[in-house]
Amino acid sequence: MTTVCLTFDFDAVSLWLSSFRTTSVTPVSRGEYGATVGLPRLLKLLDGKAVKATFFVPSHTAISYPAETRAIRDAGHEIALHGYVHETPLGLDRDEEARLLDASIARLRKVLGNDFTPQGYRSPAWDLSVNTIDLLLERGLMYDSSMMGDDFRPYFARKGDQLDDESFRPGETSALIEMPVAWELDDFPYFTFLNKPLYSGLRDPAEVGRIWQSEFDYCHEEVEGGVFTLTTHPQIIGRGPRIRMLGALIDHMKSAGDVRFLTMAEAAGEARSTLTAISSGH
Q1: What are phi and psi of 208, to 5 degrees?
Q2: What is the mean pLDDT of residues 245-259?
Q3: CA angle at 263 for the pair 84 and 86, rounded to the nearest 5°
Q4: Which stretches are transmembrane (predicted)?
């Protein structure tokens, strides 16, 4: 059985404010497009295909677009953490990173209700500080989705790795489930255009669809019990031809047989049970 986790980073305008440090009209409007055009298209597509997904939402996005954020929840999709304002945890001291995590959860609860209990986190930088894993576990989170130590198999995240000119020394295995990601399975490098610095990723959706289909086919045919995780962004995948490509990819995955679509929390929960049993020798 192959598991498919469709994941969407609902960055909206926070991407431009934090990661690209620009607040002029046109970049901000690109973020608005993701909230007001791209997201409704995605929710319509997912509803039509009868699949559930996971949305990683910065708290800045939830506060800025509360109705859109609640629409994700009301459609039955998972909402997980994605920073306070799409900030990187790298360079933050432990107290500041903890403060931002707590503030993110609090702001999401203002929008989603006090019963909102996040199960997962994805770093906006796809990178973690030396403290991130402990901080997530302290807050009861089950999984992270920011690392690349496997392609189609979840694993227990390590902490305390040491790397220097002498050698690489793996650290301690934690209880946090890692749901790995890959740049090959992210829409950003294929489709994003930036002019400062120049980055032109305007690829043909059909070509990208073939790449993603090939990745899925390998997972389905070669990796027993594999988890295929796709990462896209409403402001990127939301363009019409790209939405159609995503729909065709979903149809292809469904037609393969022995495939199911789960939220990342559902898949991580199953992975935790399996990995725990393996580690205990059962």
Answers
A1: -65, -40
A2: 98
A3: 15
A4: none
Q: Are strands 198-200 and 193-195 parallel, antiparallel or unpaired?
A: antiparallel
Q: Please work out, in degrees rounded to the nearest 5, the angle formed at the alpha carbon of residue 175 by the alpha carbons of 169 and 179.
A: 85
Which pLDDT does position 100 carry in this prediction?
98
- How far apart, in Å, do the first and last CA atoms of the chain sit? 21
Can you read off the two tokens belonging to residue 108? Answer: 């999401």
Give Cα separations from 204 to 59, 210, 244 (angstroms): 32, 10, 12
Q: How far is the CA of 66 from the CAs of 18, 60, 72, 86, 95, in angstroms?
A: 19, 10, 10, 17, 28
User: 203: Cβ–Cβ under 8 A, 6 or more apart, which residues?
Assistant: 190, 191
- Measured CA to CA in angstroms, residue 104 lies from 75, 108, 199, 235 at distances of 22, 6, 30, 22
The predicted model scores a pTM of 0.97
- The answer to whether 200 touches 191, Cβ cutoff 8 Å, is no
* Predicted local confidence at residue 199, as pLDDT: 81
Place of tokens 């690349």: 148
Q: Look at residue 137 and tell me whether its pLDDT is greater than 90.
A: yes
pLDDT at position 280 is: 77
Output the domain CATH number for residue 241.
3.20.20.370
Domain that holds residue 118: 2-279
pLDDT at position 282 is 62
pLDDT in tens, 164-201: 999 999 999 999 999 999 999 999 999 999 887 778 88
DSSP-derived secondary structure for 52-111:
--EEEE-HHHHHHSHHHHHHHHHTT-EEEE--SSS---TT--HHHHHHHHHHHHHHHHHH
Question: Number of structural domains, the chain?
Answer: 1
Tokens representing residue 43 in the block? 């929710």
Q: Let me know: does 228 contact 7? Beta carbons within 8 Å.
A: no
Query: Can you tell me the distance from the alpha carbon of 59 to that of 104, in angstroms, rounded to the nearest whole number?
Result: 5
